[in-house]
Structures
1.
Amino acid sequence: MEKIKMTTPLVEMDGDEMTRVLWQVIKDELILPFVDLKTEYYDLGLPNRDATRDQVTLDAAEANKKYGVAVKCATITPNAQRMEEYKLHEMWKSPNGTIRAALDGTVFRAPIMIDSIKPAVKYWKKPITIARHAYGDVYKATEFRIPGPGKAELRFTGADGTQQSATIYDFECGGVLQGQYNKDSSIRSFARSCFNYALDQKQDLWFGAKDTISKKYDHTFKDIFQEVYDTEYKARFEAAGLEYFYSLIDDIVARVIRSEGGFVWACKNYDGDVMSDMVSTAFGSLAMMTSVLVSPDGKFEFEAAHGTVTRHYYKYLKGEATSTNPMATIFAWSGALKKRGELDSLPDLVHFGEALEAASLQTLNDGIMTKDLCGLAEGITPTPVDSLGFIRAIRERLEKKF
């Protein structure tokens, strides 16, 4: 069989621990036998990030801007324990956060659904896509630990020297203090990404914030979304028969639980972080969640929504069998290949990405599963397999399609 040709490389961002091991197995078993793969490779494993003082992450983000499509393996965001374990020079920032900031992107996460695993929320019939604003808020906040009594103030000095100030709190004892920020430009980019993605997916868009309590911060999100919708997207939404719906975040959460799904749910940064985990778990597993970062100018970075599966990696190093679910990583590759094929007008590459996803879903529907899913399956008797056995079962089905 002649391999499918590519004309433009993908930006390939390698990662850490068990997902790094699976990354190579997926390439060897599911992609390289079928595709004449072209990638520009960046090693975002923690040792190399430390060796390059994290320059490799910045370089990968710039390559993503240049080529338009990237696929990323899960990576470690180090804490104090990782500092010691890897003997790091510095507690490097999250690679995902760095890349999101560089692309000014929005993260869209959606569950991978199969017939034998029913959502924990009985009303849900269709996937719910979480759109997470990936800038600012608590993730870029400045924090103080207040040692004792004193006055905390908020002050802004304009470029022209004018000032605004307000007392936050007169502390009568110790406490904590946090300052968050966001930018109109980033919120506007977030809004456009969400409206564009909803139109592309032909799904309604829901958005919620707490504007009744946060009358400046959250209200700005509400106002900018409404302004962008009214001036740029209202006619297109109405022509497509789609709805943009805003409400308070607590009302949105209640409505989501009672809905049947099938819409894009736009969330501020922290809300999206938390709610994407809630949605993915309620649909079955965090390992069954797609994730794509989309910039306002149409750059894409596909990744798994989960971490590096440290516990399984330590077992792997001891030579023990592991049953790590590779589905999210497989769908990161398939999503990137489909998008590359779409942008480069390569229908065979798009077809391969679709076939890879179909073979993966067929394997699960045939009852061949990693252990994390076996206890969730209904109506079938699953056959538990290790990671390699699962990937090879997918390859058997993929070969029948080519």
2.
Amino acid sequence: MKKLTLITLAILLAGCSAHNLNPQAQRVRVTNNEPGKECKFLGDITGSQGNFFTGGWTSNSNLETGARNDLKNQAANMGGNVVSIITQRAGQTGGMYDGSGSSEQTNVTLTGNVYHCPEA
């Protein structure tokens, strides 16, 4: 039983940290603007961090950073170096009991268009 508790705790703690940024994704730029015509459109992607189970234990900062890192990792895997954000959402989970309740941010989802632009 002790081992199961330790394994569960390790899984929960791992779920609380932001997704890691891969080395090749460090040069990917995320922007709210569409890049110029010299850039080639590669496709769209969705990056996310969190879920209803671990999201409540994860800081809002780690949810945001993890979603952005997920987005940048995917863009780099596609050969992109710029992501133009289309949507940004923060999910909340909560409940009502006997007339009172609460909610908390449990996930962040970012959707963007991926481009490969000439290096400046």
3.
Amino acid sequence: MLDFKKIADILAPLPGKTALLIKDKTGVLYASPLAGEEFKSASLIKLAVACYYQAHPQDLSQMVHVPEDKIVEGGMLCHLAQRDWMLRDILDWMLSDSDNTATNFLIDFIGFAKMAAWFEAEFAHLHLGRYLMEVTDRENYLSAETALELLERLLADPSPFGQVCQKALFYQESVNKLLQDLPEGCSYSKTGELEDTEHDAARIFSGDSYYDICFMSHYTGLEEREQILLAQNAVGKLAYQDLTGK
């Protein structure tokens, strides 16, 4: 069993605002006081976009066109000349590469207002307020509790859609937080970051045993960011060591 006193000791000196939620197949094992509070979502909102498509199935084999004027920074699509893709590829780019153009396309393909309304109706702490990379005073929000619910929905899905999402989350590019000190092939994850935000939602597993962990943060400055990242590294390492005995 995880040493929750060690985890509490890791969290205690951290600057800013943090939330940590840890679950296994039996349910919640550890929830810090802010686990149900809304944070700026950063790229964790992409889990919610994927869950919309899970609940409203589309033909993933259909070819779609990404307009040139909709290309934004963040991810590979802004570097590639190709603009016609299968819908499944756009979904994969969003989750594996955290591609912002792919995310915005998937929102627009359904309709911003329609997706935002479903988020509000389906989840207690999930709000779509803006596109990725949009400069506005609106914001996207979710809680650690909601983030893990989204991740768990995708990982529990045995359908072809679920398999696409699971493969993308398995090969997710960013691994500098909960997964920093872990070997490849032991996790599904989705990170998120902004200037003042470092989030990670992951399933760390060994055989049939696993921990689902969401670590969210809000801080100020590079020094505080470093403290948050080191804490995320430490929590992920503790979880993996407990699962494997290594």
4.
Amino acid sequence: MYGALTSFRIDGNTTRERSVAITDYLTKAWGIFTVRRGGVTNGEVIRVTPALYNTPQDSDRLARALRAAARRF
């Protein structure tokens, strides 16, 4: 059982409302489950937790989704 945990922020998106919009977009448009986390320095972040069972294609899809989200938000 191995996994990873990382958080990210799209520049300028530090509010709860924007974080919720980003997580909703990643779920609905890309099928990628993320959660927002508040209370960190400099605003909210989005958390994603890839695991050992994720394939290289899953990682590629995450990268494409994050680029798309950065353009959209």
